[in-house]
């Protein structure tokens, strides 16, 4: 069995696209799916704000790469790579429209399955997520999407995954 077949990788964009920068994870996933093809062992999904509904794909994964807005009190557009204990400090919007915070969902998955996949978060400090609802992402975050995509692709490779750019 190849390393690729052994490693099930879940790339998941989180957030509410109606709340501007809070939807950045979903927007990055959209661009990944537009620009790259992934083998069968890699699922790239819009996790939105679905909480517990995400348990099945999480439990079925060996590695999770989460893309989300993260509040760490740095300038808007600051990109983060968080893993291990940093994950616990990272995910913002605990009291937002998310049904359930990602960490709570991950803990529930571990309780149900006895398995906890490795998790890495590619996060970005939002600029605007509390004003009037809008589908628009701030320019500060739009400018950083290529960097976030590069970091996600690096994480995929780091756990033995592959991808292929789509023809223009």
Automatic annotation (TrEMBL):
The keyword Signal does not apply. CDD domains: H2MP_MemB-H2up. GO terms for biological process: protein processing. Keywords: Aspartyl protease, Hydrolase, Metal-binding, Nickel, Protease. The keyword Protease applies. One of its GO terms (molecular function) is aspartic-type endopeptidase activity. It comes from the Bacteria. Ni(2+) binds at residues 22, 68, 98. Belongs to the peptidase A31 family. This is Hydrogenase maturation protease. It comes from Desulfovibrio ferrophilus. The lineage of its organism: Bacteria, Pseudomonadati, Thermodesulfobacteriota, Desulfovibrionia, Desulfovibrionales.
